[in-house]
Amino acid sequence: MYKTRTDRLKAMRKQRQKRLFATLSGLLLFSAALAGTYMIWETHQQANRFGHVKEEQNHPSAADDLPQASDQPPVVVLTFVGDVMMDGNVEKRLKAEGYDYPYRHIGETFQQDDYTIANLETPVTKRGTPEADKQYVYKSPPEAIPAMKAAGIDLVNLANNHILDQGVEGLLDTMRVLDDNGIRYIGAGADANQAYAPVWVERNGISIAFFGFSRVVPKVSWYAGVNKPGVAASYDPARAVESIRSARHKADLIVVIAHWGKEKENFPAAHQKALARAYIDAGADLVVGGHPHVLQGFESYKKKWIAYSLGNFIFTRSTHPTTWETMILQASCTPKGSCQLRMLPYHAELAQAVPMNEQDGARLIKRIESLSVNVRIEPDGSVREAAEAQVSDSP
Question: Which residues lie closer than 8 Å to 276 by C-beta, 6 or more apart?
């Protein structure tokens, strides 16, 4: 009991304060618990959202996982150059400047393609018997071949009118030094079977058959035969056609290097056109010619390209200005045998190929276009059928 009324009132106030404090404390605790619950819920929701985004980023859709077919087929890039020889004044220059002198302005052109092909217009030997009754007889030093390989030349054509200038001994020596340096060859051999056989090359999954044939052979005795070294002659194209047809069933791409035509003539002779068509009808996809020592034009036959002559590349310097012009020809070809050509204008200086400046190059492109049949050559050297060029230029 309380002693006085005042004590009783004080006690009642204390009890009310305690109850109020307890109520407020409960409310505070409830609020804190509610806030904590909300924060946990929100964190969980954010984690779910962010986790879902990351999962989408790390796990592409099923459609993305399907193999994507490429619209572009594989392509092989082939590079072709014209006549190469290292005799006479050329040899003198090489001995003075170094055997790599011919290729110093080529850069990495022969290294960055898939395969590089040249016409080796000389035997490479220290022996042999010079061919009689011939105005020009060549004999090049074997020391020049390692530099040719180092420059990036992979294959040479031996089907020409100089490869037996030093007789059979010179031919066999040439084949031996090429083998020793890892340069392959076509168009000549220890017998007819080897001379007419292709060299098989595979690049980027594309199987390529290279052939070499010559319609310029000084003597019948130069013809390859049974157990007889020589060249693959093609005055009568029957044997060449048979060889091409036999390769067609397993080759994706067939390339023929042809030695033909008349020297220093700007336009192809009738036999060049006839042989090119015979080779293509038999299954060739690309025909590249030489021998005239000057550049000739391009022609498309049944959608297959013919380059009639690439002129000189590494050679002596004659008095005819058109022999001073040359090109590097590049062909980008698909497994279906479709090729796109591009010419790179060069000067054929003594023993060295030198790129033309822009003005000279444009002039040469226009000149080669004028020598070609239904062809347009773009400023960058791309060679196109005239009809195709007109369609692409239309709005």
Answer: 258, 287, 289, 299, 301, 306, 308
Q: How far apart are alpha carbons 217 and 175 in whole angstroms?
A: 18
3-state secondary structure of 68: coil
Residues 6+ apart with CB under 8 A from 134: 165, 218
The CB-side HSE value for 312 (13 A sphere, CA atoms) comes to 27
Q: What is the pLDDT of residues 176-233, one digit of tens each?
A: 999 999 999 999 999 999 999 999 999 999 999 999 999 999 999 999 999 999 999 9
Please choose, from the candidates 137, 84, 93, 100, the residue with its C-alpha nearest in 3D space to the C-alpha of residue 346.
84
Point out which residues pair with 254 in neighbouring strands: 209
Distances (CA, A) of 325 to 43, 130, 151, 358: 77, 30, 21, 14
* Those residues with Cβ within 8 angstroms of residue 128's Cβ, 6 or more apart along the chain or in another chain: 139, 165, 166, 167, 169, 170, 173
In degrees rounded to 5, what are phi and psi of residue 119? -100, 115
The Cα 375–Cα 382 span in angstroms is 10
Task: Give per-residue pLDDT as tens, 346-367.
Answer: 999 999 999 999 999 999 999 9
**How far apart, in whole angstroms, are the C-alpha atoms of residue 160 and residue 392?**
39
